[in-house]
Amino acid sequence: MFGPVLGIDPGVSRCGYGVVGLGRHGELQPMACGVIRTSPDRPLPERLATLAHELEILVDEIRPVALAVERVLFQANVRTAMSVGQASGLALVVAARRDIPVANYSPNEVKLAVVGHGGADKAQVQEMVMRVLHLKELPRPPDAADALALAVCHLGGVSLRAAVGHDERIEAAAGGAPSPRLDRAIAAAVAREQAQ
Amino acid sequence: MFGPVLGIDPGVSRCGYGVVGLGRHGELQPMACGVIRTSPDRPLPERLATLAHELEILVDEIRPVALAVERVLFQANVRTAMSVGQASGLALVVAARRDIPVANYSPNEVKLAVVGHGGADKAQVQEMVMRVLHLKELPRPPDAADALALAVCHLGGVSLRAAVGHDERIEAAAGGAPSPRLDRAIAAAVAREQAQ
User: What's the gap in Å between the CA of A43 and the closest CA on chain B?
Assistant: First the structure.
């Protein structure tokens, strides 16, 4: 198996994570997903310390080959950007201290890779993540689905770059692209769905 | 001596710090200031890990009784907010892991406390920080002066709250206010200046 890749949808109140590997025939293998929550009733420094601690435990347990972290959009407001910055900064330090490379993807890149168009809504992302990962039900909450989608997006890019012989670390930093292998996996999932 | 208080002007490229204590007669005692820099040529996760490491060393060396951290303004742009969020989040975790309380002050609160009006420019803050701390020259760069100003602002609030018997930790979380003691220190500094 290649991976696992740990997708992170950063936030202080809810930080989604999703773990996906790639089998030897290029099949996506979902391994775990969930949300790290911190209580809005606690002081911010304590919440961030809790988040950092949980991220460390997660990364040490999963030992991912890469982190795929959501990049904040410029359309976001300052309060969101500040909060996403705080959460993502902690994830990046956890990764750097373990020499794990980090790739960033915008929500649009993820939607393009997973759903096929950048304008997809959250429900479509959940639905398509369920299909391509052959899950029995929708991944919930949406933060966990988004994190799985980030990992899928990164693995799509990995497959593509492996096919054309690019260096993973350099390319990952520049952002991923949807892969033919991922497209095939999505097409197969849709075909299965329609055959039922 | 009360303190020291560690002021932090958070940023990924340049993170200013300033250390100020309060003598037994309420006199401000500057102890150190400077800037932690990370190279824009290095990957962001590595830069954040470097910053986190330097902040840990600084805090363990100084053993401050409180951190005074600049709060990002809503007028700031998203890129700035993201970067300030990343740097401040790391500082907050370093503090929380050592049970050091953190207070946040907006740039306007700091200017009001140190210069006397919220609309002061960077040069005026540098000038007034030099006066109230009896420094022989302007604290440089501006990030270091801003960090000293944050510590001075916090100590001003501490004096005021001590005078009226408020609990420091609760009040610190709500933000500080300029103190009569600080006002006297500033007035004395201005008088000394004019007498020369």
Answer: 8
- The domain that holds A43 is classified in CATH as 3.30.420.10
Candidates B111, B92, B74; CA nearest to B15 is B92
Task: Tell me, yes or no, if B127 is annotated catalytic.
Answer: no
Structure tokens, B79: 């890129």
Give the CA distances from residue A175 to residues A74, A110, A132, A171, in Å, rounded to whole numbers and listed in that order. 16, 10, 21, 6
Query: Amino acid identity, residue A94?
Result: V
Q: Which residue of A has its CA nearest to B49?
A: A93
Q: Helix (H) and strand (E) counts for chain B?
A: 7, 5
Residues of B with CB under 8 A from a CB of A: 43-46, 48-49, 52, 72-79, 81-90, 92-93, 95-97, 102, 173
List CB contacts of A99: < 8 A, sequence separation 6 or more: none
Strands A102-105 vs B2-9: parallel, antiparallel or unpaired: unpaired
A183 is catalytic: no
B72, B95, B97 ranked by CB distance to A78: nearest: B72
What is the torsion angle, in degrees rounded to the nearest 10, for the CA atoms of residue A109, residue A111, residue A117 and residue A119? -100
Q: Which domain holds residue A164?
A: 2-195
Task: Give the active site residue among B61, B70, B127, B183.
Answer: B70
**For B95-148, how does the pLDDT look when each residue is reduced to its tens digit (9 = 90+)?**
999 999 999 999 889 998 888 888 888 899 999 999 999 999 999 898 999 999
Domain count within chain A: 1
Cβ–Cβ below 8 Å for B78 and A83: no
Nearest-by-Cβ selection for B93 from A45, A88, A95: A45
Token pair for A27: 């099949």
Q: Tell me the range of A19-33, A48-62, A100-114 where mean pLDDT is highest.
A: A48-62
Report CB contact under 8 Å: B86, A86. yes
A9 is catalytic: yes
- Which residues, including other chains, have CB under 8 Å from residue B104's CB and lie 6 or more apart? B68, B69, B70, B71, B175
Taking the model in full, what pTM does it have? 0.80
How many angstroms separate the CA atoms of A156 and A180, rounded?
Answer: 8
